Amino acid sequence: MKIVIVGNSVAAVNAIEAIREKDKISSITVVSDENYRAYSHPLLPSLVVGEVSRSEERFYYRRSGFYENNKVNTVLGKRVVKLDLEGKTVELDNGERLEYDKLLLACGGKPIKPPMEGLDLEGVHTLTNIKSADKLRKDLKNISHCVVVGGGLIGSKVAEKLAKKGIKVTLVELARRVLFPVLDDTGADYIHRELKGLGVTLMLNDSVSALDGDGRVGQVILKSGKKIDADGVVVAVGVAPNIDLAKDANLDVDRGIVVNDFMQTSNENVYAAGDVAQAYDIVMGLKRPIPILPLAARQGRVAALNMLGMDVKYKGGFPMNSMTIGKTSFISAGIVDSEELEVLSIQKGDEYRKFLVDEDNRLKGMILINNIEKAGMFNWMIQNRFDVSWIKDTFLNSDFGWKYFNKAFRVLRLDRKIK
Amino acid sequence: MKIVKIREDNCIFCHLCEVACIVEHSQSKDIIKAFKREERPIARCTVEFNYPVSLSVMCRHCDDAPCIEACQNGSMHRDERGYVVVNPETCVGCWMCIMACPYGVIKRDTRREKWGLSTKCDLCPDRVIPACVEACPNEALTFEEL
Predict the structure, then answer these.
(1) A124-235 maps to which CATH number?
(2) From the candidates A37, A40, A351, which should be mutated to test the interface with B, based on the most B CB atoms within 10 A?
(3) Is CATH 3.60.10.10 the classification given to domain A330-414?
């Protein structure tokens, strides 16, 4: 069988590994417009400030030799321009065509361009791949005051890294707090304090209306009318799934490429996984793209196994994030702010714990700040729609652990008898 | 594949598993040096106590380890023996493995200069019987097929 994978990051690599666990014979071809082996996207802000370099093994998603060891043909630095679903081929930007029996679309996302003037000025950057990170890294010497547009995961992280590097940073965020979907007000305040402590100026409830400058950006004009003199801008207002290829080929697309429980698109020979796919969100109870690394890995595996003809269901996922800014580490998951759900929360010193439970006593979301070690136990409860009625009283204990569970359940779980 | 089976009825909350784990993962593997002179390793097992319950918990070495799937750069991996281990050379301490671990048995070591280090049971690669199992006076931890 001929398998072609479009994209070369988390979903693609996990698909390759899953295929090779079962099938040593089928040919696997990976096509990516990036000319590098798969790398760690969360490390891009560190790459910009030189904490990690491209010569270090830790920057990469798999150790060198991965493609050779798994007998993968790599077609790197080439873009797929067209899918021919009838003829089962993909067309590359150099006119070459690759035949497939099964196709996996794992082409990720692209940075969203906010509607503002001056995005093409020199000194205006995004940060979603090696190329953009390199461009920003080389431009750092020209930047004394950087405006970061967007206080999401990338924006907050890059603001922290640049501030630590000694660059004056202003972070502009449309919402009333940074990390809006990931933390609530109380949680975000921990991050606000860390960022301010590093010297970052926060401009919340505001957004950028235009970037101004002659050749190079010189001034950032906000909706509120404020003007900030700046010689560098990082635009980090989010990523959108790369759906153009699928759309042009008339596959079902919504915000991402729509897939069924087997990660199969509306064409039976085409699968999608990772940031580009719109799969089931178990907490919200609907299909939507959730662009996080662990789900891309899982989806890549599930898609690959189904491409091989196995019958493996994707059980659905939900957003979860782990992040450290300054000295504050947090892990949050699912719904973090709600009027309808029962909220259990406690704040003591550095620590903040919050849990959201629905009327059926299912955990729907949580935030843990600075005492994060048991986060995965809660995520297991969310994933498995675990009845928490008898144990939720212990969630707020800092020493939450196995000792609070019912004995029979605990023994079965720790013996790996319940998955 | 053998892992450490937890027999909580036999646990007497003595913490000897933690002591043995710390010694085994120390530089010298000498108890005095490990506790008094060298940088003390973090115990990979944790004894929990909530009267009358007590038990020692450590990595269950899942078949479909979610920590491996969540790792951002392949540091969390399966070794030749089939056990789930961290490569300290590449771990950057993002704690995504902690976020994914359904057993809550991965700990943070934040003492390195640059990168944090995810710390978990490696099932003692230098030993035939894991240190915690050998140290347990009561067979509250045994090494066997589950």
Answers:
(1) 3.50.50.60
(2) A40
(3) no
Q: Which residue has the tokens 């990168």?
A: B115
Q: Is the pLDDT of residue A419 over 90?
A: no
* A402/chain B closest Cα distance in angstroms: 7
Q: What is the pLDDT of residue A77?
A: 97
The letter for the amino acid at A335 is: I
Looking at the predicted complex, does its ipTM rise above 0.90? yes
Place of tokens 């950028």: A208
Whether the bond between B52 and the residue before it is cis, its omega within 30 degrees of 0, is: yes
Cα–Cα distance measured from residue B13 to residue B49, given in angstroms and rounded to the nearest whole number: 7
CB atoms within 10 A of CB A325: 23
* Class (C level, CATH) for B62-120: alpha beta
Indicate the domain borders of chain B: 1-58+124-146, 62-120
- The pTM of the full predicted model, rounded to 2 decimals, is 0.96
* Residues of chain A neighbouring B49 (CB-CB closer than 8 A): 403
How is domain A2-41+61-110+241-307 classified at the CATH fold level? FAD/NAD(P)-binding domain (3.50.50)
Q: Can you give the pLDDT at residue B56?
A: 98
Cα separation, B132 vs A46, in Å, equals 38
DSSP code, position B33: I
